[in-house]
Amino acid sequence: MNLLAKDYVSHQLTATEALVDEQQMAVLACDVHGNMQLFFYDPASPDSFNGQKLLSRADIHFGATVHRLKRVVPLAIHGTDSTPPRRAAFFGIGRRFEYVSHTCSGTLEGALGFVTPVAETVFRRLWALQQKMVQSLPHVAGLNPKSFRYHVRFE
Asked: What are the backbone dihedrals phi and psi of residue 57, each rounded to the nearest 5 degrees, phi first?
């Protein structure tokens, strides 16, 4: 086993799991403060110091400590022997189920989460829907749902 890269910020992690998206692999890490971070290994990036540092690409606050992450690799959806496997329309054009993994998370409070890679167009549609919902729907107890999801840093 060889050490490829690491994150130089110390975390009190409760769960980690790999997330595979076709030819890319990322590492999901959850800490005791209810945060989840997505790390990528990219030795070509100047921020990674020649591949010695993992790059944080996404972070989110869950609101509960994630105690279990489980990678789920769905079965390929096949047609007949003469037709190729069907494409998964939700994940974007040209992406196939057998090259994408999903990660399911669980907390002791009973919450379930699901992390899956999506195509850029799907991300932009979901982001626009979130923006519209935050602006038009009333917030429970006056709490802003976007500010609740900001990554909490305790250092």
From this structure: -100, -25
Model confidence, pTM? 0.71
- Number of DSSP helices (H) and strands (E) in the chain, helices first: 2, 7
The angle formed by the CA atoms of residues 113, 58 and 61, to the nearest 5 degrees, is 50
Q: What is the DSSP string of 97-120?
A: GGGB-EEEEEETTS-EEEE----H
Instruction: Note the pLDDT tens digit of each residue in 105-145.
Output: 999 888 898 888 888 899 899 999 989 998 898 888 877 88
The domain tally of the chain equals 1
Q: How confident is the model at residue 89 (pLDDT cuts 50, 70, 90)?
A: very low
Q: How far apart are the first and last CA of the chain?
A: 30
Host domain of residue 37: 13-119
Q: Residue 132 is inside which H or E element, if any?
A: helix 120-136
